[in-house]
Amino acid sequence: MTARSALRTGRGPARLAFAGAWAAVLTVALAAITGCQAMHPLDGVPAERLADSFRTPVRTPRRPIDPSLLGQPRPSVYRLDTGDVLGVFAPALYGDGGLGSPPVVVAETTLNLIPGQGFPHQVGRDGAVHLPFLGPVLVRGLTLEEARGRIVDLIRTQFEIDRSKEDPIVLLSVLKERTISVVVFRNETGPDGAVDNNVAGQGGERFDSPTGEVVELPAYQNDVLHALAATGGTPSLEGDVCVTVARAGGLRLTGCGPGGCQPAGNFGGAADEMAFGPIGGHSVGPALAPTLAGAPTVDGPQVVKIPMQLLPGQPPGFCHSDVILKDGDAVYVDSRTKDVFYTGGLLGPGSFRLPRDEDIDVLEALAVVQGQRQSVGTTRALTGNSVLSRDVTAGASSLIILRERPDGTRLRIEVDLRDAVVDPRQRILIRPQDYLILQYRKGEAFVAGFERFFIEGIVQGVSTGIFFNN
User: Fold this and answer.
1) C-alpha dist (Å) from residue 392 to 55, 142, 395, 448, 468
2) For residues 139 and 126, what is the distance between their CA atoms, to the nearest angstrom?
3) Is residue 122 assigned to a domain?
4) pLDDT per residue over 360-394, tens digit each?
5) What are the entry keywords (predicted)?
6) Of 34, 230, 360, 382, which has fewest CB within 10 angstroms of its CB?
7) What is the pLDDT of residue 423?
8) What is the pLDDT of residue 256?
9) Of 284, 280, 282, 276, whose CA–CA distance to 256 is shortest?
10) Contact, 303 vs 242, CB < 8 A?
């Protein structure tokens, strides 16, 4: 190899590196001139100027409610009501029928029967059992002994049995206790705690496992506590903070007759001339829109909301009758849908769940976001870097928090991450639905662009020159 060729070979990588450097400089300059978004950061209200309420914890003191408040005490005696199945035997009413003793009813697991004797009679909706010769006998609210005494008195009156004689034989037992049918819907978090944080680039996806079940609750167990216990237990503490109970019959559509909604026009007209009612309901013909006697949402008066967490000293906000369930009631347990915050800008798009029992500030929120991003292998080139990493590379120090106001507008809060490390006024607490945008300041954006395009351009130019000259 000649000296001239060696010189040419040595100068090749340098030339490529020099050209790459100039290209990087021109790229940075062009980005600044043409309006790169990094050169136009968002601004907001400085965090240190905000009231102390922005730093006041609201979640930390909450504690789980005493589960006994969701149930009811079992009374010392069982009182009869609609749905109970009684075993009744009285020779005065049935005769012996060739039997020396009353029929024996053996318990069957599928029927949930209790061992007893007598002919089965169910307590009807009127609270009475209908017996031969006696007709309806009102037993609602009576104990078993009280009901037996009433039947004995009615037999004496019906057959004119003198009071001086012994009581007629009456055997009375409960063959099957009544049950209350309720529907329980649960749309709760999965086993990983509501958010799947292993989705690269997303930062967390909801993981719900909706279920629905019709539950038969025994008498004196017809309450929210037993309904939850029968369908998986009390709500996950990572789930919703309240249980909703919709009362059966609390809301009814009106304006429809036995034959359906009455038509509001002639069926002979053209289709576009027909005024059809709302979606759903009857499928043919124009109809008058049914009306409701109340709000058709979970905010209506027919709905009871029972919180699962309370602040110290906070009253529960419901009474004993609210947890008692009646036939046809619906219980709904839902996952929290608003207890997340969102990210954008250099943090990348994503949603992250807020802790249940504690508040987190901006520094802790960034630690959660960047920690989860690193665990799924998201690189700095995709998400950017903050000054908190204390890296040798350029980092962003401006964090914008978009917070929704009651009127629907958004308040922009600007946090200086450099000051937040030492100034507690910068450490704003994160609220549900907050949107966190990490961005460069103008100087930081220039340095980051220089670092990315100039230095990396030189390295790529040199490596490319070496590759082609080999």
Assistant:
1) 31, 82, 9, 11, 31
2) 9
3) yes
4) 999 999 988 887 776 655 544 444 566 566 555 66
5) Signal
6) 34
7) 93
8) 52
9) 282
10) no
How many CB atoms lie under 10 A from the CB of residue 94?
Answer: 17
Residue 194 covered by a domain? no
Last residue of a domain, one of 176, 210, 225: 176
Tokens (6 digits) for 466: 């070496």
Residues in CB range of 445: below 8 A, 6 or more apart: 36, 38, 39, 41
What integer pLDDT is reported at residue 200 of this predicted model? 38
Q: For residue 272, what pLDDT is reported?
A: 43
For residue 116, what are the contacts with CB-CB under 8 A and spacing of at least 6? 87, 105, 173, 174, 175
- Range of 143's domain? 85-176
State residue 249's pLDDT score. 74
The set of residues, in sequence order, having a beta carbon less than 8 Å from that of 458 and lying 6+ positions away, is 17, 20, 21, 24
Q: How many domains is the chain built from?
A: 3
CA dist 351 and 418 (Å) reads: 24
Q: According to the model, what pLDDT value does residue 396 have?
A: 84
Mean confidence (pLDDT) of the chain = 75
The set of residues, in sequence order, having a beta carbon less than 8 Å from that of 349 and lying 6+ positions away, is 201, 202, 203, 342, 343
